[in-house]
Design goal:
Elements: H1 13-31, H2 40-50, H3 54-57, H4 68-81, H5 85-110, H6 113-124, H7 127-132, H8 139-157, H9 162-178, H10 182-197
Helix pairs in contact: 1-5, 1-6, 2-4, 4-5, 5-6, 5-8, 8-9, 8-10, 9-10
């Protein structure tokens, strides 16, 4: 098996400091404005899903406006902090922020330190990612699980362990339980794997 990705490299203190700074900056950008008025789909989600009992919420799927895993986390956030715009958006803020170091890890794995940090920087200040990270819906979580799946798959293709297979399966399942379009990500991954298997022996990666 030949690999296009390089072996994992030790992370320097400067990288850690830069990544922490980027992640904190991303958190600030996502927190500011998170307590503004709700928009229409958020209101529908709050009334129809976030306020209902948890058992009913996670076992029913009345329509595609329901993002089950997000609804469950928003329900728990409301129970812990009370009902406010910022509290129902808190899961989106946290998952959106957590995607920054995760994307850095993926970028660093397939490229270089500089590319990983640049990817993290671009996502940290991305208008659309900030906006979806302030949206009480499952889209920021979907991005998080997509990056996690992709990283795990690359490691698996290079001879990863069963633990990585579990990470992939769990990320895919949680992503699909958040939003059904996660299925398309998994299908895309499967298509890539089939294409790689069809390549001549020794050219898997």
């Amino acid at each position: 098996m030949s690999a296009t990705t390089s072996a994992p490299r030790s992370i320097t203190k400067a990288e850690v400091a830069t990544l922490v700074a980027l992640t904190l900056a991303a958190l600030v950008l996502r927190v500011v404005g998170s307590n503004s008025g709700l928009w229409i789909d958020e209101i529908y989600s709050l009334v129809d899903f976030f306020r209902v009992p948890l058992g009913r919420m996670v076992t029913a799927f009345p329509r595609d406006n329901h993002h089950p895993l997000y609804s469950a986390l928003a329900h728990l956030s409301i129970g812990a902090f009370g009902e406010a715009p910022w509290s129902i958006r808190l899961p989106a803020v946290l998952f959106g922020t957590a995607t920054i170091p995760l994307l850095y890890g993926l970028g660093r794995y397939v490229g270089s330190r500089r590319e990983g940090l640049l990817a993290a920087l671009l996502l940290a200040v991305s208008y659309h990612h900030v906006w979806f990270s302030q949206n009480a819906r499952g889209y920021a979580m979907l991005a998080f699980f997509t990056v996690a799946c992709t990283w795990a798959l690359l490691r698996i293709l290079e001879g990863g362990s069963r633990r990585l297979a579990f990470v992939y399966g769990a990320s895919a399942a949680l992503g699909a339980y958040t939003h059904l379009t996660m299925v398309f990500i998994v299908v895309g991954h499967a298509a890539v794997c089939v294409a790689l298997l069809a390549m001549p022996s020794g050219r898997v990666m």
